[in-house]
Protein: Radical SAM core domain-containing protein
Organism: Thermogymnomonas acidicola
Amino acid sequence: MEQNGKIIGKRERIEATFDRYSGEVSREAIIKDDILLHGLNFSERSLKGAYQEKAYYLFTFDSDRPEVVRERPAMIPQEICIQGGSYGLRRTIIQSRHSKDSPYSVDVLDGKRVLLLDGVPVADVSFVPRPAYYGQELRDGMRVEEVAPAIYWGETADVTAFRICEYWNRGKQCLFCDINENFRSWGHLRKGLGAIVPEDIVAESLEMASRDQGVKRYLITGGAILDSRREWEFYLRYIQRAEESLSRKLPSRLNTQALEPHALERFYETGVDYYHPNIEVWDRRLFSLICPGKEENIGRDEWIRRTAEAARLFGTGNVSPNFVAGIEMAYSQAFPHGFRNVEEAVRSTAEGIEILMQNEIVPKFDTWGLEPLSWFGRNGVSIPPLEYYPELYIRYKELKREYSMPWPAGLGEAGAGVSKVPASAFMDA
């Protein structure tokens, strides 16, 4: 990057961003989003020892192609924690996204794992430990973590019930998404499972996970099913079996498309606590271009209407559609549609945040990771500048205060040094 006619490195730029947003957005949030944007490289010696390995349960999230990641002799961790160091960082949990070309790397110096930025140590690093429930065998001989791996530093048992998305069959998949490619590339990690995970072993896995005191909730998620009735009946069976097994021992999160009110009532009655009908991007035109299957099958306006109905049923803070923060700035010769400056992009998404909050809906975010086997990855789109994220969070916090909204429920505690949300810094801000 050039500043006042001088080329500056990534470290100087991140420090300038710290200074620019001092008092408004935490350092932890800024460096976390920069790591999520650019990924992490890991030295071989940093990957020695015991830790929770990355599960590749839904998407890759990696900046590198799967064949590059598979060259590693050891699997990277699911998440890392950075703290201390030259920036005095509070404890910050970050999802691992592999990138050999990242300016951020994890290595071992003086017997300790450290985070390097442009080759300079800036923070101490620890890897997420294996949860206590890992290693147990299910009745069919599979290990519990093959069905219900942990995220959120062990607090959420995460089940991908349907490991692909039917929009891919029509070439209508969301342009940022690599779910089907993830299954094709990493499905071998769960040799006994196909695209559909049997309900009984999901219930058995969640019951095992629930005995671990570190597990605070479970999540049922997966790809879209084209027929609305088939979709809600499919996912409802998993919630029913899980609740029969758990007897309301753990709160439940459900991530599906925006479902009709009559279907949502069934989930509510069965025991779903938190619902995530992920809208991905707000702008009307970009929604139709980036999420063509969702636009064709349900439509943006209907998606918003159903989400508002869900909030009336589940209550304020319990319905949290996700934005893939940054995709509204996707731009390339093949996709010349994204916003070209941060102010316009944030204004667009903030409009969506405000309308949702007016309807008792509290949206959440994942920081966009440009996956090479997604449509965007194959077509050379650019990622947003780092400044987009603190600007978005400032506006989010303003609107949250204006409408007296809580943090999204079901994600754990919020705050720098406290949040365990791994794929976004909005709750670290």
